[in-house]
């Protein structure tokens, strides 16, 4: 087993608890949840989570000692079992008629709930009572530790849901990760990257009594020794973000854009989402997790959390994130509607010569959103966006040429820009283009007559 300078979580809390802030506690809880998420993502159930086998090395959580399923179901060493009573899913102690309860992922969630309480208190659960059959009965009848004073309400709510007596009422590990991350991000927007092999000791799995893990161990070793997997994930995320950028920069129809994105990457959505939850060290990763939250892809739609993620990535100069910050302010998604801040967000992008920002600035000038109406400015920004390939900007520029808004009327230039938009894929512009061609033909007939 790899050396852990902080020892077990139990020892670490004993030695350092008085110096821990709530940010530190949230960080420990988040790392713990991420580590369990990595296991569940590989179809591994730990079954033995307690503060004695969760290790801390350089303030990083590591999980060790797999295999309680073997010990609980086959061992006669009851002393060990009683020593970890507070962490075991109470369903395991239910009297059954030949069908003993099998510990599962929801059992790990129960243990996580107890560990979250332990992190908040710095104390062993039920430290003042004997770990015996009486405690088993009390826990089975839903007795739990009381929340510690000054613990955030959201944190109490989370661990209470985790240690619910009914497994179906407990959240998934992904939900736990997401909720801890949301609370942690309020005080610290930069979250360290947590790779699966940073949180698991494969030697501990090998030495476990649980022989049924052998096939999964081999898969985990491949993950641990090969750089191809994280590299391929990063490459895939970068490709998705680039695809989204291209679709938005050209300002394709929203429904068409979302359909293209889902059609191209649908088979990987679940895998990508789970990976993103524990990999937030690059702007693209932060943005894409926000994108999933914004549109409810592989998770419930959460505009507020999406905005926080976009804001985080935008502060790292991520163009798409800056664009979505603007959208959130424009429509009041996840944040209070603010036209001025929306305009400022888009203007920053426009000044960097990106079409998606130039189009929005032109639109805001045209519609008088967050800025005084100015048709000449609208024309100028639409023209820049159109020249950079934005399909809707081409149509809007054509319309301004047709109506003489911000420029002189010019039917030929109007036709030119609508035709450009059609030829580059915007079939919605075809109807207006046909009308403009008819208008020009009528004018030509009038000249002849």
From TrEMBL:
Keywords noted in UniProt: Kinase, Transferase
Gene3D superfamilies named in the record: Tetratricopeptide repeat domain, Transferase(Phosphotransferase) domain 1
Top-rank taxon: Eukaryota
Pfam families: PK_Tyr_Ser-Thr, Sel1
Keyword Repeat found: no
Keyword Transferase (UniProt): yes
PROSITE patterns associated with the record: PROTEIN_KINASE_DOM (PS50011)
Every Protein kinase domain range: 1-184
Gene Ontology molecular-function annotations: ATP binding; protein serine/threonine kinase activity
Protein name per Swiss-Prot or TrEMBL: Kinase-like protein
Lineage: Eukaryota, Fungi, Fungi incertae sedis, Mucoromycota, Glomeromycotina
């Amino acid at each position: 087993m790899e050396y852990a300078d902080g020892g077990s979580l139990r020892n670490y809390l004993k030695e350092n608890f008085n110096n821990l802030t709530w940010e530190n506690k949230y960080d420990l809880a988040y790392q713990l949840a991420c580590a369990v998420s990595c296991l569940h993502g590989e179809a591994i159930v730990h079954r033995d989570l307690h503060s004695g086998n969760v290790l801390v090395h350089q303030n990083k959580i590591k999980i060790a000692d797999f295999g309680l399923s073997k010990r609980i179901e086959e061992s006669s060493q009851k002393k060990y079992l009683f020593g970890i009573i507070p962490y075991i899913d109470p369903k395991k102690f239910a009297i059954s008629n030949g069908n003993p309860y099998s510990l599962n992922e929801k059992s790990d969630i129960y243990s996580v709930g107890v560990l979250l309480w332990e992190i908040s208190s710095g104390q062993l659960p039920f430290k003042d009572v004997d770990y015996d059959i009486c405690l088993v009965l009390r826990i089975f009848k839903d007795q739990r530790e009381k929340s510690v004073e000054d613990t955030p309400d959201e944190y109490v709510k989370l661990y209470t849901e985790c240690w619910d007596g009914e497994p179906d009422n407990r959240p998934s590990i992904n939900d736990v990760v997401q909720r801890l991350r949301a609370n942690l991000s309020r005080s610290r927007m930069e979250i360290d990257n947590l790779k699966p092999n940073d949180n698991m000791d494969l030697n501990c799995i090998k030495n476990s009594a649980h022989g049924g893990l052998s096939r999964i161990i081999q898969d985990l070793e491949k993950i641990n020794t090969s750089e191809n997997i994280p590299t391929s994930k990063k490459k895939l995320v970068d490709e998705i973000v680039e695809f989204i950028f291209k679709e938005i920069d050209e300002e394709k129809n929203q429904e068409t854009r979302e359909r293209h994105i889902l059609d191209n990457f649908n088979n990987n959505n679940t895998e990508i989402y789970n990976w993103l939850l524990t990999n937030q060290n690059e702007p693209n990763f932060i943005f894409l997790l926000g994108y999933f939250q914004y549109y409810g892809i592989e998770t419930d739609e959460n505009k507020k959390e999406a905005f926080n993620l976009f804001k985080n990535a935008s502060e790292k100069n991520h163009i798409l994130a800056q664009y979505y910050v603007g959208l959130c302010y424009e429509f009041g998604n996840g944040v209070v509607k603010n036209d001025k801040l929306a305009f400022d967000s888009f203007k920053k992008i426009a000044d960097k010569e990106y079409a998606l920002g130039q189009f929005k600035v032109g639109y805001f000038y045209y519609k008088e959103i967050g800025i005084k109406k100015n048709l000449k400015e609208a024309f100028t920004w639409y023209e820049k966006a159109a020249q950079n390939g934005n399909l809707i900007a081409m149509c809007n520029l054509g319309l301004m040429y047709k109506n003489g808004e911000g420029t002189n009327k010019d039917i030929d230039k109007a036709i030119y820009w609508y035709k450009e938009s059609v030829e580059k894929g915007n079939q919605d512009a075809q109807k207006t283009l046909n009308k403009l061609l008819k208008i020009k033909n009528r004018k030509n007939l009038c000249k002849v007559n």
